[in-house]
Specification:
Layout: H1 2-14, E1 23-30, E2 44-55, H2 60-67, E3 78-91, E4 109-121, E5 125-136, H3 142-153, E6 168-179, E7 192-203, E8 206-219, E9 246-261, E10 272-284, E11 287-296, E12 307-317
Antiparallel strand pairs: 1-2, 1-12, 2-3, 3-4, 4-5, 5-6, 6-7, 7-8, 8-9, 9-10, 10-11, 11-12
Length: 318
């Protein structure tokens, strides 16, 4: 646990040396009753932390990115870069009662990673390019983190971490795009935005294509591209400290066409996984707060029930 905290301090201290910060975000996803009081299940993808720093420096290669391809022709293009540090935790069902576990269930696993991303955006479209790399296995210290969290939440003690996936280097490249659909059939409704989302992930951890549709409704909608989440950690382009307070509700429905998921090794993966996220975001001056719940269909054929988790997000603007 101390090693993991040390990595975070190095991450935080390193950032101001490079450029002036604009936003710092914290994402925490978990399937406990603390995060999801209307129901909980301590299994499978059970916890995720991510710390994200985003800035908008004047770098030559970012100007090149802004004009690369046909993106933003005859339009103003804004760019941003970000660094992140994250950890995901995966477990089988019945973490405190190994005698009840089935052989065809997920294994204990931790994924500790750092990442870098670049974004470019016009008024109506955002593109996000991201590379994450790190380690899966005991060196990710997921067992230490889960034990600490369960102590804080007074939850059951996990048993079986000695059988987790072994150490291996792992990476993912992620591309996502969000587009504000200004001429949708719902465009005439005041204070409502419809934002399609699509992209893919290629790497040793995940390989899938993703498609989704985001609806958000509220007051004084910010000029960004909707709420960030741990999987798509930042859409800070458009956020400023000025302007009125903002509040909105959102709903995102989507799916993934899956070719590979390292944490389902040995199981029969479902090729199509559906996902539904609902939540709310409030922003006041220099701080944005968000809460959501995400529900998704079964990820492998032997899975006996669907999974879900709750998420808290905090973004500070500088």
């Amino acid at each position: 646990m101390n090693k993991w905290i040390g990595l975070l301090w190095i991450f935080l201290l390193f950032l101001p040396c490079r450029c002036m910060a604009e936003t710092f975000s914290v994402y925490w996803e978990n399937d406990s009753r603390f995060h999801k009081p209307n129901g909980h299940a301590d299994r499978h993808y059970t916890n995720g932390f991510r710390f994200v720093y985003t800035a908008q420096p004047e770098w030559d290669w970012l100007r090149d990115l802004a004009s690369w391809g046909r993106f933003g022709e005859d339009q103003d293009v804004t760019t941003a870069v970000g660094l992140s540090l994250g950890q995901n935790i995966y477990t089988p069902n019945w973490i405190d009662q190994p005698q009840k576990r089935r052989a065809d269930d997920m294994k204990y696993a931790g994924w500790l990673y750092t990442g870098w991303f670049a974004q470019r955006a016009t008024e109506k479209q955002l593109e996000h390019f991201e590379l994450n790399f790190g380690i899966i296995g005991p060196s990710a210290h997921a067992d230490d983190v889960q034990s600490e969290i369960h102590d804080w939440l007074h939850s059951d003690k996990p048993i079986g971490w000695e059988n987790q996936l072994g150490d291996e280097f792992a990476f993912d490249f992620i591309y996502r795009s969000r587009i504000k659909w200004t001429d949708s059939p719902l465009a005439s409704i005041p204070n409502l935005e419809v934002i399609p989302e699509y992209g893919f992930t290629l790497g040793s951890v995940h390989r899938h294509a993703a498609l989704g549709l985001l609806f958000r409704y509220g007051w004084n909608l910010p000029a960004d591209f909707g709420p960030g989440r741990l999987e798509l950690p930042s859409t800070e382009i458009g956020k400023t400290r000025s302007g009125p307070d903002s509040f909105y509700l959102f709903c995102r429905a989507g799916g993934r066409l899956v070719e590979h998921n390292r944490f389902l090794t040995g199981l029969d993966e479902e090729p199509l996984v559906g996902e539904l996220q609902i939540g709310a975001v409030y922003r006041r001056k220099w701080m944005e707060l968000g809460y959501s719940q995400t529900f998704f269909t079964r990820e492998y054929e032997q899975q006996h029930a669907n999974d879900s988790f709750g998420a808290f997000t905090v973004t500070l603007l500088f």
